[in-house]
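A further point concerns the way the authors explain their paired sequence and structure data. Nothing conveys this as quickly as seeing an actual entry. An entry of this sort, consisting of the sequence and the corresponding backbone structure tokens, reads as follows:
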Amino acid sequence: MSVYTTLCFLAAASMLIAFINSKIGRMQTTIAITAGALVLSLLIIIAGQRDWFNLQDLAAQTLSSIDFESFLLKGVLGFLLFAGGLGIKLPNLKDQKWEITVLALVATLISTFFIGFALYGIFQLLGINMGLIYCLLFGALISPTDPIAVLAIIRQLKAPRRISIQVEGESLFNDGFGLVIFVTLFTIAFGTEEPTAFGVVQLFLHEAIGGLVYGGLLGLLFHWLICSTDDHSMELLLTLGIPTAGYAFADVIGVSGPLAMVVAGIMIGNWTRYIGFSPESEDHLDHFWELVDEFINSVLFLLIGLAIIQFTFHQEDWVVMAIAIPLVLLGRWVSVRLCYIGFNRYRDYNPLSVQILTWGGLRGGLALAMAMSIPAGVMVIPEKNIDVREIILVMTYAVVVFSILIQGSTITKMIEKAKVIERNM
């Protein structure tokens, strides 16, 4: 079965789950798709273990034909972040610019090092010989909140404006910064050359600042192209050039494509929208990109639910999974709380802001794709053939599934309570 055929069937399956949920369920669509795929995966695994029918090998082989890392990091992530950037209102972003900057960069760094050092200490106590750099690598990939998961859920709940802008803005930008931190630590962990402080800083700045500048130039180019045509269809088609060729070229020149997509999306959504698009195209712009976003999200969350079929679990894996979930939540709370100590000196916020940003800091396919990019072979428990990749992968999967299914489905009451407080403030 070709990759295209596999993706067609997966898209059909995700739409079927979404349709059934719309008729008989009340779950948010992406949560329902992930839950449905996870239940199907567990059914296949259990059926194979009990000799009812054996589809696990076939399912695993089919899924392995799709390189999840490339599919997301080098493919559809550009579409999802550009669509997210289009929906950000610049006046609201300006009102929260310092909060978003600090949360996206400082909170991500605090969380990365808190989780990395805490995990290393816990592993030392348990006798698990995993190097500090690999623990920091896990901290880097799991600390950024995933805009794909966050935007799909938070917007639908209509959280209080300031909280909503912080969650959305942070998730879009810390995704790019998180990837830069991950790439930097990945180079230190698996690079062939001896890392230097200057080289690490240079790599970080090249990726991050380069991505922001490239995104601005890309936005200017496509603003000019869109303004130069009166063809309604062409105006919409030109927007597709940004997350396709524009995103691919970012990888060629070695800058952060995710950051570039967010910047270009904000420019097109807040500047070109009102100057370059005809009234007809402006009306269709949001509908077009909402449809693209919904379709890709459906396939992505289905793949997250089905990913468990490809894993081989050892007894130690269940232990590290149980450690990862509370540790990541604690790292998220510490990083947000420390930022808010500074924020509260200059402005008043909803009392539930820290709790919502902590519990609403969802992780999704982005973290899983980064975990899958880690090479196999660095052994942690040689006698059981357990390596760094396996430990990081199962921890990441546990956190991702918990955040989508548990955090995503239980945050509603917290947001409703915050709305009541907001009205009474």
